[in-house]
Predict the structure of Cytochrome b561.
Amino acid sequence: MMGELQTWADRYRSRGRYTPVGVAFHWIMAAVVIFQLGTGWWMQRYLVGPDKLAAYATHAQTGLTLLLLGLLRLLWRTIVPGPVNDADRPGFSAKIAHLTHGIFYALFTVLPLSGWAMWSAIRPAEPLYLAGLVPIPALPFHDLSRAWQFRVLDLAMDVHLAGVILLSVLVPAHMLAAIKHHLVDRDDVFEGMLPEMTDHHHHPEGPQHSPPPLADRPDEARG
Ligand code: HEM
Ligand code: HEM
């Protein structure tokens, strides 16, 4: 099973590409992370009332979904690492790129956990639901004294904000780097993260643009 998975993954990695699973994780999470940065800032500008509470709940529940996605992605990435491509040439920028990716993975955990800690310290009336379905309990902060609850809230808020600032700097930097690879260096890095629309690269004899004549096909493929 693992062997088959690696063989399948190598079909992509050997051509400098991420697997379709890696690509799906990347673009789904990129969209959700940007959505999350938006709701995080906007929800604070709502006037106090039910709309504001609903905006906070959306933010929290989407954030917890990112925690789950991030952990699954990390697991996937340990089993199937990304390809070695032009972004991995030894040197300073490869180090910065790998560091950035590492920080992204760390933030996929630190941001939701600090958010969850904040949510739990303010003793919410409503439970949270993961992806709108699975109820998520508050962390056990209600047993703490009021003073300690406040300390937890304060610390979690600082951690959350620091993570948000780091993410807001690294995301545009990462995007600019990807665009530079594509437009300036004209290498394979950006393409390796795009979904592949056709399958013809896999054929051992090269691109196959039309089906082979009927007479050449094995019997079971005929009628
Ligand atoms: C990757 C996931 C997340 C991202 C990118 C994110 C982003 C943000 C941003 C941009 C803000 C506004 C800046 C700030 O006050 O810190 C914010 C605030 C907040 N987030 Fe998140 N968040 C994430 C996950 C979560 C989760 C899972 C929860 C709760 C379970 C949560 C709860 C909160 C709360 C309560 C605030 C308001 C803090 C305040 O009023 O100062 N966040 N978040
Ligand atoms: C919130 C937004 C984003 C986040 C959090 C993010 C995160 C990541 C992470 C963690 C990786 C490393 C994947 C791995 O090897 O396991 C990665 C790779 C990559 N990302 Fe993003 N990304 C975001 C947006 C974008 C955007 C908008 C672009 C394109 C403009 C982009 C282009 C790429 C490319 C080309 C790679 C492959 C780099 C390589 O092969 O070394 N990303 N991204």
Observations:
- The helical segments are 2-13, 20-43, 50-79, 92-121, 146-185.
- The chain has a mean pLDDT of 89.
- The beta strands are 128-130, 134-136.
